[in-house]
Amino acid sequence: MLHYVTTNDGKVREAREYLDAVEAVDFDYTEVQADDLGPIAARGAREAYAHVGGPVLVDDAGLFLEGFDGFPGPYSAYVEHTLGVERVGELARQQAAETDETPRAQFRCVLAYCDGEGFAATPDAVDYGDRRGHDLAADERGTASTSDSVVSGDLPVKLFTGTVRGRIVEPRGEGGFGYDPIFEHDGKTLAEMTAAEKNAISHRGRALATFAEFYAER
Ligand code: ITT
Ligand code: NA
């Protein structure tokens, strides 16, 4: 049985569309301080595996504002609880107005899988263990990728990353969660989309689709 480790019900709802046999575990793993999501998720997966004793999937996500060098990024949950979503949107729009540009942003989701076993090496594997910086301009619409994260002496973890690009707008919509109301993609905010519509284009949906394919083989 796969354990989806999160304290966030919105994430669980989205994950269930890809994984039928999944048990949500409300386990608050230690979020190490890092400037990218990969190492945070990988460490979380190792800790969660030790706690659960079976296959675990940890989901670490964040909003990366392009005009603010990726802020709030790995600190998105903290910033949501302190500044709040509307204020983050206002800041991004104010700054962009000064340069007469549209504020752009990226959502990123890193899924970290650990089941105590090793993984066959993937040719394009990136070691996220030491990765720094954000590949913000990767693609106009979004990306999905897979990589191994094997830090020597540690449990092997496999990472699945999804991104989506969009514009920061005034809050609209009642669906989704977190920063969804201020993030517009193809004319709709993620909060104006149904769960299926959001999954089809979102950072989490892309990462989950890649993971589901891998997990079906595992
Ligand atoms: P867990 O760590 O327990 O999974 P969390 O909500 O703290 O739950 P994160 O650490 O990944 O999750 O925090 C990411 C922040 O980004 C948090 O403020 C979320 O509300 C927000 N977020 C994550 N995924 C999102 C999505 O799909 N749409 C909008 N906001 C999202
Ligand atoms: Na968290």
Task: Summarize this structure as a short list of keywords or feature phrases.
218 residues, Maf protein, 31% helix, 25% strand, binds inosine 5'-triphosphate, Non-canonical purine NTP pyrophosphatase, ITPase-like_fam, RdgB/HAM1
Could you explain the architecture of this structure?
It is a single chain. The protein is an alpha+beta fold and 218 residues long. The chain has a single domain, classed as Maf protein (Alpha-Beta Complex), CATH 3.90.950. It is built from six helices and eight strands. Strands 1, 2, 3, 4, 5, 6, 7 and 8 form an eight-stranded mixed sheet that branches. The longest helix is centred in the first third of the chain and has 16 residues, at 37-52. The chain is globular, with a radius of gyration of 17 Å. The model is unreliable at 125-139 (pLDDT under 50). Belongs to the HAM1 NTPase family. Pfam families: Ham1p_like. It comes from Halomarina rubra.
